Amino acid sequence: QTGHTTLDYGFVNTASTKSAITYIDGDQGILRYRGYPIEQLAKNSTYLEVAWLLIYGELPSASELESFDERIRRHTLLHEDLKSLFSALPPTAHPMSVLSAATAALSTYYESESDPHNPEHVELNTVRMLAKLPVIAAYAHKKSIGQAFLYPDNKLSFVDNFLKLNFGVMSETYESNPVMTKALDLLLMLHADHEQNASTSTVRLVGSTGANQFASISAGIQALSGPLHGGANEAVLQMLGRIRDSGESVERFVERVKNKEEGVKLMGFGHRVYKNYDPRAKLVKEAADEVLEALGVSDPLLDLAKELEQIALEDDYFKARRLYPNVDFYTGVIYKAMGFPTRMFTVLFAIGRLPGWLAQWREAITDPQTKIGRPQQLYTGAAVRNYPGV
Ligand code: SDX
């Protein structure tokens, strides 16, 4: 399940990374965080407990989890000056761009405490990132809808604090909704890590140069924003909306996908590793029915997504290419039912993935095998030649 391949070029093949954090079996549709199957964690654990598991390697004791939660609460405030960064950005700024920019800016407040080889700095900034990224995300949301920023309310749980920062307003008393709290906690957990995906590889690559956690996470956020990666959850909702608004039948849309018209893809389907049903997608699909019913929301887009899935799973084109729903296929319907704007969906993915990024960054910088990232190249350019007249 782990291993290095050292190619005959005499250097370690950077394409294969050794890690003890997450195990995926794409053919079997298996996902385990530090050996625990995702299905068991989804049923019995919480996002913060899983964050500890990924970062420290073992499930926390009750007192460890309590002190972790307490430390995170104590770091939720952003420096007041940092808030002016948000007003410097255009109101139309994509929340993922705001998230990455504010994360990079965060590092400017802690430059004297960001030595990647100082364990105290690493510990402190791990907690700072876990505490502050959700606040930055909520401010990106508030900015996109022109509402005032709230201060964190540390009497609330981690997830409720985040929900209040997003949906609370100055003039009202915020009422937590246990259905939303439980559903969001599950979704954040399901996104918490996923082995060497594009954004995690970016975080490790940037960290391998000696850059600090803030810089590495900011780069990972940008990598995640692409529609082929984390941006897919936003693209799925846009795809479903276009099908609904066009009046086009699902069958007709699937035909256009198979004909590869203008690069039309079935967003939320397919995966670099899973050539079977993404185990997270199964869990999200189950949650979608429960959450929408509990919230009293009926969304035709959920029915459309199920119809699309049904047709694709029975179609030889998708079967031959082993294309199944991935984690992004159903998440957007739940986020929408909660009241998040579509452009916040990938931000929620980033909040979920943060513990995995931090765990993988810490593993990379403490692994003596880690060399500065330098992916291999196979040169395909011109053979050696002389400058004219030489
Ligand atoms: C995430 O790596 C991770 O772990 C990522 C992630 C994580 O947790 O970090 O799991 C999160 O990013 C999930 C993926 C979200 N992206 C999407 O849903 C976008 C749509 N999916 C595709 O773009 C695609 O499936 C990829 C990029 C995800 C994976 O592509 P692959 O495995 O490199 O496959 P490919 O591009 O080589 O395609 C193989 C064939 C091609 O057809 P042919 O050229 O053989 O005729 O399958 C086709 C592709 O055209 N294909 C699709 C398709 N995905 C692949 N056709 C239609 N719709 C799709 N979604």
TrEMBL record:
One protein family per Pfam: Citrate_synt
Q: Which GO terms describe its molecular function?
A: citrate synthase activity
State the UniProt keywords alphabetically.
Acyltransferase, Transferase, Tricarboxylic acid cycle
Q: Which SUPFAM superfamilies match?
A: Citrate synthase (SSF48256)
Q: What reaction gets catalysed by this protein?
A: oxaloacetate + acetyl-CoA + H2O = citrate + CoA + H(+)
Q: Does the keyword Hydrolase apply?
A: no
What NCBIfam families does the entry give?
A: cit_synth_I, PRK05614.1
Recorded hits in PANTHER family, A to Z, give: CITRATE SYNTHASE
Q: Under which name does UniProt file this protein?
A: Citrate synthase
Q: Which organism is it from?
A: Microbacterium trichothecenolyticum
